[in-house]
Structure formats: structure tokens, C-alpha cells
Amino acid sequence: MKDGPDIARIASLIGDPGRANMLAALMSGKALTAGELAREAGVRVQTASGHLTRLEEGGLIARERQGRHHYFRLADTDVAGVLEALMGLAAAKGQLRTRTGPRDPELRRARVCYNHLAGEVGVMLYDGLRARGVLTGEGEGIALTDAGRAEMAALGIDLSAASRSPECKSCLDWSARRSHLAGRLGRGILDFTFAQGWAMRPEGTRIVRFSGIGEGAFRKAFNV
Amino acid sequence: MKDGPDIARIASLIGDPGRANMLAALMSGKALTAGELAREAGVRVQTASGHLTRLEEGGLIARERQGRHHYFRLADTDVAGVLEALMGLAAAKGQLRTRTGPRDPELRRARVCYNHLAGEVGVMLYDGLRARGVLTGEGEGIALTDAGRAEMAALGIDLSAASRSPECKSCLDWSARRSHLAGRLGRGILDFTFAQGWAMRPEGTRIVRFSGIGEGAFRKAFNV
DNA sequence: AGAATAGTTCGGTCCAGACCGAACCATTCC
DNA sequence: GGAATGGTTCGGTCTGGACCGAACTATTCT
């Protein structure tokens, strides 16, 4: 029939375990080098190089050369969105959870979703801000109220991030199956959280680990 | 690393051209038999049977036996959502559109997205209903207003559909890259449109083809 | 019952592509 | 310059899985 877009091409790119691991690693939002991604995928660097070339040709990732390093990142937030959606399906359909990893609980609690906060804490933030009238609307149509914008500015959160992404956006969570906050505000809040030292990111994971004090300060700041 | 859900398993299921074609065919919302799906995918029935078993085991489709026929449909709307999202990416990244099919313009104009209306007409409907205050909110949080519910009832649109799906829901369109209306209301409106004879569906496609009169009546009824 | 139709299972072929060793290119450091 | 480091390209191996013919099972029709 061959009607509509060719989804098999994209899906098969994601469908290789090695490449999938690389993409999952890039969901951390950090740009990673070929070597790091090779370790992530558990393959030799030559193999990884081949995968990365294919992913780049497929438009899923972007490459940036910096001296002898090649940094890779997801091509755009659309790609991140599809990956997160796939994680949602996989988590739902995963045959009886193939031995949930040791880090799973922490990932469900709070993690980075490309450039913003996901997991229970992300959902809590989203719900809290909406309940308090900082945000209005829902889903794609979500927006900061004037009061909300003032509040964020008072905290010192940077919304300027030179990017085409909308100020606010919601993103579906694979673990909680609920929306959380993306867009420039989502990114600004996550950056702010790290800048304040409220949370740190264990090397090489998507986990966002709050300190006891940090979590308290975070909840107080955003009143959730 | 193996953190988070195993997306490669699902993605590789979708990543085979034959299976992808079958899934795309099932996006029409109709339950199809193994033989029909084999034709759709362009493979022999034995091969299709194998694919269908794998898709079923993977939780992407559901099987219903009826006499000597086996009917297959997408497992749930989540699967449809991921497929539509993948189509969005594929359409965006598709290297210079590998020769858009002859039916492409019609598909972009109006098509079935699992059980509701998508394409330009679907987006127009969504925007129109929101502009007129039949719907309030956006994205996931969209809902019928009381006035809107009355109006739909007056037209005779059935919202009862015994399903767990929400009354209203928005769904991202691969062609227009905009939201359109899903959920029980979306389904009710599409069913109603066919019941009124305003549009028909060419056999074996996702196309929704309005007649001249039908389109006029549709626009008048929903005031778009 | 026998014939026709719809699907599945089995066995075997075949190929795309994942993988790695080795050689090669590019950049940085000393 | 030479050595070290990070990536890519090339050539060859090997396997998963897509595919189909043939045989088999299940259901319906007459």
C-alpha cells in the first residue's frame, strides 16, 4: 500500500539494541562523544561509528565536531518525544518487566527527559504549578499566567533560552503516564535546580538525585 | 546501561516493512483478517501469520477469532498514538519525501486516525470547535463545555461508546503537525459523519472522501 | 461425509546488517 | 617533528530473521 510516511525506516533505526541504547543515553540531553556512546551501547567504537552515521543520515541525531571529538545529540525535541512515547509503550507492554534494573526506582522518581524534569517529581511540579495558577491550560496549550511569569522571574529562572521551542509544553511521562512540564520553562527550571545545587546527576545516567535539603528547597520554591 | 524500558524490542517490531505496513493498515481502525493484512504487506499468508504472532506477543495488536477468521486490530489507542507520532517524525525526516504516493494529497486532506478524523479537515474541526467554545482547554486537558455537550446531543452524536477512553482527547497529526480531536467525541463525530452519508471511505485506505454536498453539510453542522 | 476456505506450523534458503580487527585519517600535546 | 588520542573506513565473518513451499489443523458449506 505504501500510503503515508515510511515509519519502518525510522523504527528500524531505533529497533537495534545498540542504537536504542545510544538514543536512550542521549535522552539525558547531554551531547556525548562517539566513544562514550560506544561504551553505552556495549560495542566497539568502530561499530558505534557506523551506527552513529546511520542515525545521523536518518535525521535522528545531530553531530558537532569539536577538534578531534565528535559530539552527538538528539536532532530535536520531536525525536525525544517519540523516544519517550516509545518508552511509555515499552513500559506498558514490557512482558512482566524483564527484571527492572536496580536504578529503576530512582529513575521513576526523578530523571532528565532531554532537557527538563520527568518522573514523579516532574509530574508533581506540573500539577502543583497548575493548581496554583502559575500555569493555565493543559497539554500543548499550556501557558504561563502573568502572575506565573512574574514569579519565575523573581526566582531568577531564565526563560530566554535561544531556541524555537515554545515557552511551555507538556510531555508524556513513561513511568507515571502523566504529563510533565517541557519547553523553555521546563528547561529553565531544571537548569535552575542544578544551579542551586538542589540536585545532582550521577555520572552517565538520567537520574536526578535530590539531596534532602535540596528537595525541601525545591518544594518550597515552587510550592509543591 | 539498560536503564529504563526496552524500546528496541517494540521499535524493531515496528521496524520491519511488512509489519509496519500491517500496522499502518490497522490505523484505519478496522479489524482486518490475516489474509487481508498479508495482501497489505505484500507477503504470503504464512509470512504474515508469523508477523502477526510476533506483533501479538509484543502487545501491539489484539486477535479475535471468529469462526475460521482471525481478526486483528491495534491493541489500544496508545499504540495508535505512537504510530501516528512515528509517522510525524518520518514525514519530517523523510529524506526529501521518497516520491509521495498518488493518494497522498487526499490522505493529508482527511483520513481516519484509528477511530477518529485526522488531516486538514480534522484540524479544522478541532480549531473550529475550540474557537466557538464547544471545547475548552487544549491538549490532553480538553473538554466539552456544557453548551457543547448539548449541541452534540442535539445533533444526535453518540458519546456513550463503551470504552475507557476519555470523552475528549487530542492527537497529533502527522501531516498537519497540529492537534486534532480524538477520544469518544472524536469517534462519535466520525461515526456520525459516515452515518449521515457525508463521506465515504475508499476500500482499503485510510482516506475519508467527502462528497461536495457532504462537506457542506459537515461544515454547516459543526460550523467550521 | 467431502470439498473449499482461512490460518498455522515446519523446514529450508538466503541475505541484510551487526560486529570486530586492522589500517588509515585528524587533531592535540610535548 | 613524533607520540598519543579519538574517529572513520575497509574487509571479512557470522547470525537473526524474513521469506516461501508444503504439510497440517480448524471451520464452514453443501
Automatic annotation (TrEMBL), chains A, B:
InterPro entries: ArsR-like_HTH, HTH_ArsR_DNA-bd_dom, HTH_Metal-responsive_Reg, WH-like_DNA-bd_sf, WH_DNA-bd_sf. GO terms for biological process: response to cadmium ion; response to lead ion. It comes from the Bacteria. Residues 1-94 form the HTH arsR-type domain. Pfam families: HTH_20. One of its GO terms (molecular function) is lead ion binding. This is Transcriptional regulator, ArsR family. It comes from Litoreibacter ascidiaceicola. The lineage of its organism: Bacteria, Pseudomonadati, Pseudomonadota, Alphaproteobacteria, Rhodobacterales.
